[in-house]
Amino acid sequence: MEIKNDLLLRAAKGERTERTPVWVMRQAGRILKEYREVRSKLSGFIELVQNPDLAAEVTIQPVDILGVDAAIIFSDILVIPEAMGLPYTMEEGKGPRFPQTVKNEKDLARLRIADDDSLGYVIDAIKVTKRELNGRVPLIGFAGAPWTIFCYMVEGKGSKTFSLARKTLYNDPVFAHKLMDKITDSTINYLKNQIAAGADIVQVFDSWAGILPAGQYDDFSLKYISKIADAITEVPVIVFAKGAYASRKSIGSINCDVVGLDWNMDIKESRELIGPNKTLQGNLDPAALYADFSTLKTETRKMIDQFGKHRHIANLGHGVYPDMEADKVKCFIDEVKNYSSR
Ligand code: CP3
Hints:
This protein is α/β, with parallel strands linked by helices and 342 residues long. It has one domain (7-340): TIM Barrel. It is 48% helix and 11% strand. The chain contains 15 helices and nine strands. The chain has helices at residues 7-12, 33-40, 45-49, 52-65, 79-84, 105-110, 120-133, 146-155, 163-171, 173-197, 214-231, 248-251, 267-274, 293-307, 326-340; strands spanning 71-72, 89-91, 95-97, 139-144, 201-206, 237-241, 258-260, 279-284, 312-316. The strands form two sheets. A seven-stranded parallel beta sheet has the order 1-4-5-6-7-8-9. Strands 2-3 form a two-stranded antiparallel ribbon. A hairpin with a 3-residue loop joins strand 2 (89-91) and strand 3 (95-97). The two termini are 30 Å apart. The structure holds coproporphyrinogen III (CP3).
């Protein structure tokens, strides 16, 4: 199907666009009262993720309400560990919990490689979303980077330090690589299935990139992201590695089309390190959305000026926070659109 507003896809491929495309990480859910209404009728987040019609509905809400240039399928990065055999729960205010974790070779041997059947509900949600979007904007598919998924599978929950996961890299690198391989194969299958169902572009979220030193990052994370980027030849690939300052140069040399920057990454320096052949995505400080409207607009303009008009997809430097006002998010989106089309 032809996509009417294809700004994001054109920018991702390096084509010139009339204005800068914009979307916001974690735009579905969290900040919209329309989302909370849908969610409140259910037992929780997981029921919503596993219901293709409702997942499609909340995926499309930000397109209708905020006017973003892309939808991102409503799901979570943690569906991969679940499909591999580690179910999770999502506790209100506490975040994800895995009752079982991967501690040893025996646990590792029990894990499946996720395939066609295991994530059918996401694939169905993508099909419904594509039908209902009817070509208005592209649909972004996504997955967690193997390192970030590894963190949750080993640790069993969120952590400030992910010390168990990092301990494993030092104490049993062979085991770590084996687990990383299984996650990578699952992720490639999963992303390919998302693309076959209609995802127009995919993003790999490496939320915990920043806790590894550069050498370990390249060896235990980027290597696997690079394998994913090599395997995905059908659509553009966005890599967002939060905090991976020291590895920006190596990220610039993998087979992806777009590199996401967090808000601490200097734009000019990142462009020099990553080179001219990638589109950059980002990177307004999410906290700028707490500012008054006029300050928010000024900060948004500064960001647009620094990236320039070409090879940029506007976004925040990380996901929008749950307590942010939808009006502020809308102001950011409108300002990108207005100012970049001047
Ligand atoms: O709008 C979108 O971006 C689409 C949906 C999406 C969710 N999670 C829905 C969600 C996406 C892209 C994610 C990615 C995700 N999930 C990441 C990577 C991005 C990042 O923020 O760094 C990570 C690390 C997770 C893991 C995760 N899921 C955590 C730590 C939590 C709890 C805290 C939180 O972020 O809200 C979740 C839950 C989650 N995922 C919610 C939503 C809407 C909230 C659950 C609820 O409604 O109760």
